[in-house]
Amino acid sequence: MNSPKPPANASLNSLDDLIAAGLVAPSQAGDLARVEKSFRIRITPEMAGAHSPAVAAQFVPDARELVIRAEELTDPIGDTAHSPTYGLTHRYPDRVILAATHACEVYCRFCFRREVVGASAALPDDDLTAALDYIAATPAIWEVILTGGDPMSLSPRRIAAIMERLSAIAHVQIVRLHTRVPVVAPHRIDDAMLAALRARPTVYIGVHTNHTDELTQAARAALTRIADAGIPMVSQTVLLRRVNDDAATLEALFRALLTLRVQPYYLHHCDLAQGTSHFRTTIAAGQAIMTQLRGRMSGMGVPTYVLDIPGGFGKVPIGPEYLAAGLEGYTVTDWQGAKHIYCDPD
Ligand SMILES: *Cc1c(COP(=O)(O)O)cnc(C)c1O
């Protein structure tokens, strides 16, 4: 297998870089300098080169990020509410998330961890060791989810080292990596990266992608290399206003993912991170889109629409509801909206 070549240009890491690249008008520099002070900027050459408004809206800062609403939180999903060691969150009995790094290849303007990403790079060794010791000492932990930041922004060597240490813990059966790297920095999916992932516990990759315009030829090739390496993939998508908040856009994305051997897993309602209200739809709008997708496309391609309950209470499916309990039994709504009665056995 040949390793892909990285693109010639470097990532855009500042407002000045964006202005030089023509992605931001110089007249906006004043407001956006204030945004840059609060929330880091980074766009990979692949995403800058996609030349798509739906892609640019996710990564190019916007003055509306200065609007902080009362309901918005610095830790919207409560990562720190259940943190036994620094970098580790243990909210559900059988699985933990480990923030292996705070860095990402791109900084999404709607990020639910925007207050912490980019602050420093890899989790310090002492903290990593403390996290791994906790996992080793907690037999209920069956799955370790590497997150961040973006765990695949780490070097293959560091990923391999973490994998090796996790393989030594007998009760850890699954390691899942949630990442944008295969899509936004596809050249990183090289032979060394694939070798690092070929560890003993079963490895899954959760690919974060929100629009087909992100699925460039290089991204599709990277996803194909991962699937060919025998690593199963699921996807997660954030529902974003004016980016992907209609059934046709999401249907195209989920069909593309299925053909690339990535199973759509979660459609996330946009979390209450600070300065992100311009991205947020209503839950009713999300439910209406889900209703349209059901029946309209392969059930394999329809993810679960979830809300991460603010404060650290976990993710729950938020509909739409097809079943209503009543005295006469259940009323079930089919995909075209017609109602039917279903009764349990006595
Ligand atoms: C999202 C999340 C998980 C994983 O949840 P799944 O429903 O298994 O995908 C695990 N722990 C924490 C703290 C999370 O935020």
Features:
346 residues, alpha/beta, TIM Barrel, three-stranded antiparallel beta sheet, 28% helix, binds pyridoxal-5'-phosphate
Set down the secondary structure blueprint.
Layout: H1 15-20, H2 29-38, H3 45-48, H4 53-59, E1 88-92, E2 95-99, H5 125-136, E3 143-147, H6 156-167, E4 174-179, H7 181-184, H8 191-197, E5 202-208, H9 217-228, E6 233-238, H10 247-259, E7 262-268, H11 283-293, E8 304-308, E9 315-317, E10 323-326, E11 329-333, E12 339-342
Parallel strand pairs: 2-3, 3-4, 4-5, 5-6, 6-7, 7-8
Antiparallel strand pairs: 1-2, 8-9, 10-11, 11-12
Helix pairs in contact: 6-8
Provide an overview of this structure.
- The protein is α/β, with parallel strands linked by helices and 346 residues long.
- The chain folds into two domains: 15-64, no CATH class; 80-317, TIM Barrel (Alpha-Beta Barrel), CATH 3.20.20.
- It contains eleven helices and twelve strands.
- The protein has a nine-stranded mixed beta sheet.
- Strand 5, helix 9 and strand 6 form a beta-alpha-beta unit.
- Helix 6 (156-167) runs parallel beside helix 8 (191-197).
- The relative contact order is 0.12.
- The mean pLDDT is 94.
- Pyridoxal-5'-phosphate binds next to strand 1 and strand 2.
- The site of pyridoxal-5'-phosphate has 8 residues, from strand 1 and strand 2.
